[in-house]
Design a protein that fits this description.
single chain
Length: 89
């Protein structure tokens, strides 16, 4: 299982809109073809997403090399903190 460059991924503002979606599709610990397609469609439809963003997000969407439990935990914590900040908590 690979470890992602987590600090860079979580602090890249270009990826911020997609991180809750990535966290949601991994919630059950598995990634289906339908879930991959849904995330990919969201990425493709966003004109702000450049190649480096796509590559970073691709690391999170490989069912053959899923993120480690530690990376998923960090992702979920980051998403929760971001949501709290957005709500002013």
């Amino acid at each position: 299982m690979k470890t992602l460059n987590l600090p860079d991924t979580l602090t890249d503002e270009r990826l911020a809109p997609f991180l809750p979606l990535v966290a949601a599709v991994w919630e059950d610990g598995e990634l289906s073809d339908l879930e991959i397609a849904a995330v990919c469609m969201a990425i493709i439809q966003d004109p702000e997403v450049d190649l480096s963003c796509k590559e970073a997000l691709q690391h999170w969407l490989d069912p053959n090399q899923p993120p480690s439990a530690r990376d998923l935990s960090a992702l979920n914590s980051h998403v929760a903190r971001s949501e709290d900040r957005a709500r002013g908590i």
